Amino acid sequence: MITLYKDYLVDLLKKLQLDKIYDDFDDLKRGRFPTPAAFIYVSDTEDIEDDGTIVGYIDDEPNKIRRYKKRKYKITNYIAILFVARNQSDAEKLKVDFFKLLDKSIKDSEGNPVLITPNDSKLHLDEGVLNNKFGRELLIEFEGGIYTERLFKLIDKFVPEGAEIQR
Length: 167
Description:
Number of strands: 7
CATH topology: STM4215-like
């Protein structure tokens, strides 16, 4: 799943017409890179929680079946993006332009929803690493999961039986 998320972000970054997109923060430590540029860092950990949320259902009328989709586990991944620009206003503009392109959700490879939430934003003025350039770091949260499907028969006709109630 993390590859899907990273590829999605790289596609968005390409639309910003950056000089270079790096996927290794070691390039940042080397210090020589064109601006504007972006660095993508995928977090080593992911949060996994038991869930159980029913996220939707589909009625299959011809077969008289209702399919419930349930999220068994909620999985949250984090990806950081560092925009580097010549000045602070250019770094801010990259952030705003990126947020304009960022969707609220995408679909995973099985068609399940993945929520996208910008989680944090920090200004970097580290002159040593950035070589007198300005950086704006964003933390993007992807909330997806592992889904199961349950099938239930639909009732064809409902005819109540029993005594009639008079009012």
